[in-house]
Amino acid sequence: MPRVASKICGLSTADTLDAAIAGGASHVGFVFFPQSPRHLTFEKAAGLAARVPERVGRVGVLVDPDDALIDAAIAAGRLDAVQLHKTGRERAAAIAGRSKLPIWIAVAVRTRADLDQAQAWRGIAERIVYDAKTPEDALPGGMGLRFDWKLLDGFAHPLPWALSGGLSPDNVGEAIGVTGARMVDVSSGVESAPGVKDVDKIARFLQAVARS
After folding, report:
1. Which residues belong to the active site?
2. What are the sequence ranges of the domains in the chain?
3. Which pLDDT band holds residue 145 (cuts at 50, 70, 90)?
4. Which residues form the N-(5'phosphoribosyl) anthranilate isomerase (PRAI) domain (predicted)?
5. Radius of gyration of the chain measured on its C-alpha atoms
């Protein structure tokens, strides 16, 4: 078992999915959000999900979804966990109860005070994903933005957590060293264009994680 787990998020093709699995990713992420360039149809998600071995977790990434979207995404993606963005506490709790799946919550970070949001998710979330805060009119993730990793120094994490936001093959080793992250989550940092994953960048990213 690698010291640091890794999720390659926003996968949409068989070759890039296979690269993530072959490289040792612990989790793969499927995005169900039409405004995102990484959005998957349910048909496409089903085809990709069928390629994922049992040892790799399938995580569905959704933005304040309704029940119909949650149900369809879980079925199509054969999801093992649901990662929620911009979703309130009561709604997330309802999704947890409805889906019976582990819930991951994205916490948008720009300042140290933003980290305190993590406390509110005890009893609902299994994992916090610390991501960079994006502008109000921008997508909630996958923008290649990073926050100051030193904000995490000395922070008492209330739950298991993953580091996200602006990670790449070139900086993930440093990020792990600075933050002590035991899981990292990448999307745009392994792309050649928005929504277009790069097999070589995925391999390099996972190699860098393995060396950390």
Report:
1. 9, 131
2. 5-211
3. confident
4. 7-208
5. 16
